[in-house]
Specification:
The complex is a heterodimer of chains A (133) and B (307).
Chain A (H helix, E strand, L loop, with lengths): L4 E3 L10 E6 L6 H10 L2 H4 L5 E4 L5 E7 L9 E6 L9 H19 L5 H10 L9
Antiparallel strand pairs in A: 1-3, 2-5, 3-4, 4-5
Helix pairs in contact in A: 1-3
Chain B lengths: L19 E5 L2 E8 L4 E5 L13 H6 L3 E5 L18 H14 L5 E6 L2 H11 L4 E7 L10 H4 L1 H5 L6 H8 L3 H8 L4 H7 L1 H6 L8 H8 L10 H13 L4 E6 L10 H8 L4 E6 L5 H21 L4
The chains are: A alpha+beta (133), B alpha/beta (307).
Chain lengths: 133, 307
């Protein structure tokens, strides 16, 4: 069960890109890098375009993959919301969307990485997005 | 801001100390320098800052000691780099080395906790002519395995996994808030007295970068970035003859004393202790005054002084 949908590059007329999360080291556990490579065909797409996903709030997020000389690609990821150009973000929606993206990522990475453990982590730290707090 | 970093003051009744700053290794480091006598350097780890030692400063200075409490680059009132690549174990040892050489410390006692362990011991073992003694608390200094705890997905590895770390520890400040709260014994007192201070010193997601970077530096296998440095730490520590005191929290679940204090005792058979006190990982919060007293007695013993 996933509420994240990978979408084609949307029209961004009248939108802006708002940075909401930065990961400098996506390959700390290499299976995470491998997931993004696989899901967004980064072996062929490289730096040509971001990956786009639609989250439960309806917001489309751009995943911008970062390359760094001497490191496997991607080395980092920046996640951007794409709100209306002059409108502030709904931070609660963004937070909830990001949590759903984490669940989607963990579920897709698979193996020893289980959504149940992510949920337990969310509960341990009393995150509202994880249904606690 | 002046060349030494400017005067940023943290006003708090429990931390009435004059802030001092030095440029170290390209960064602005905050520290306090109180008292007169042989120096005692109090080193914190993740995600704390000098405030962790607020109950140590007065008893140590009253006993005739000079107390230096640096804030690691990335924490407290020190500069907080915004890229993970700014943080390396060797770089942090070099940061500390720069400060302590600028202060020209001699006959120093290094009090090491959490990441203050690998960094403080790294300094001590590469600058032995400046060291008098070691006090080691809830830390480690060897490559792998750290402990079963650090191999587990929950609660440890998931917390700092890619993308999860910046979300949980960055957006939600989970380590300085709930994380520290869970790692003390008297949680009610911690919440009333200290939790907001630890949370408030890391006010924005970008200021919390080191809280998820340090966990990623704990080696889990021989491909880890810090592996060779930890091998060196273990090898050199085993050869060291510094008078050493081990102090551990009985309730410590992160670096449990049966695994970690025992291993230090194997490496340093001449060490005193482990002396167990009430405390989880942040044992200074539960037993600060008691540990300060133990340090004073230990240093008095090795100096041949009466307590």
């Amino acid at each position: 069960m996933t509420q994240i949908e990978v979408v084609e590059a949307p029209r961004l007329d009248g939108k802006r890109r708002a940075l909401v999360l930065t990961e400098d080291r996506v390959g700390h556990y290499p299976e995470f890098r491998e997931f993004f490579v696989r899901r967004f065909a980064l072996d062929s797409n490289g730096l040509a375009r971001p990956g786009y996903v639609r989250a439960p709030s309806g917001m489309v997020y751009a995943l911008v993959f970062i390359g760094r000389s001497g490191e496997p690609f991607p080395d980092g990821i920046e996640i951007y919301a794409t709100p209306d150009a002059l409108e502030p973000l709904n931070e609660a929606d963004v937070d909830s969307d990001l949590w759903t993206m984490l669940s989607w990522m963990i579920e897709s990475v698979g193996g020893e990485w289980r959504v149940e453990d992510l949920d337990a982590t969310g509960r341990l730290y009393q995150l509202t997005a994880a249904g606690t707090g | 801001m002046d060349a030494s970093g400017g005067a940023q003051r943290f006003a708090h009744e429990q931390w009435p100390y004059e802030p001092k700053f030095k440029r170290v290794n390209g960064w602005r480091m905050h520290y306090i320098d109180e008292g007169v006598g042989d120096p005692v350097v109090l080193l914190h780890g993740n995600p704390a800052w000098g405030f962790l030692y607020r109950k140590f400063v007065k008893p140590l200075t009253v006993a005739g000691r000079r107390v230096i409490v640096p804030d690691m680059i990335g924490f407290g009132l020190s500069e907080k780099p915004v890229r993970e690549q700014a943080h390396t174990l060797d770089g942090h040892i070099a940061n500390l080395t720069s400060l302590l050489r600028q202060l020209d410390l001699r006959n120093a006692t290094m009090v090491c906790h959490d990441w203050g362990g690998p960094t403080g011991l790294g300094f001590a073992l590469s600058n032995p002519n400046r060291i008098r003694a070691l006090v080691i608390m809830s830390t480690w200094a060897w490559p792998v395995p750290p402990a079963e705890f650090h191999n587990q997905i929950f609660p440890w590895r998931m917390m700092h996994a890619p993308v999860v770390g910046p979300y949980l520890l960055g957006r939600h400040n989970a380590l300085a808030g709930r994380g520290m709260y869970l790692s003390v014994v008297d949680r009610k007192k911690f919440r009333a007295e200290a939790q907001s201070v630890y949370e408030g010193i890391l006010p924005d997601p970008g200021s919390r970068l080191l809280t998820w970077t340090w966990p990623r530096w704990i080696p889990l296998d021989d491909s880890a970035r810090g592996f060779a440095r930890f091998e060196w730490l273990e090898r050199e520590l085993r050869k060291s003859k510094f008078p050493t005191l081990l102090v551990w929290g009985r309730e410590d679940e992160v670096f449990d004393h049966k695994t970690f204090a025992t291993r230090f005792k194997e490496l340093l058979p001449h060490a005193e202790g482990p002396e167990l006190v009430t405390g989880r990982h942040f044992l200074q919060e539960d037993s600060g005054a008691e540990i300060a007293k133990k340090i004073n007695r230990f240093l008095d013993r090795i100096d041949g002084r009466q307590s």
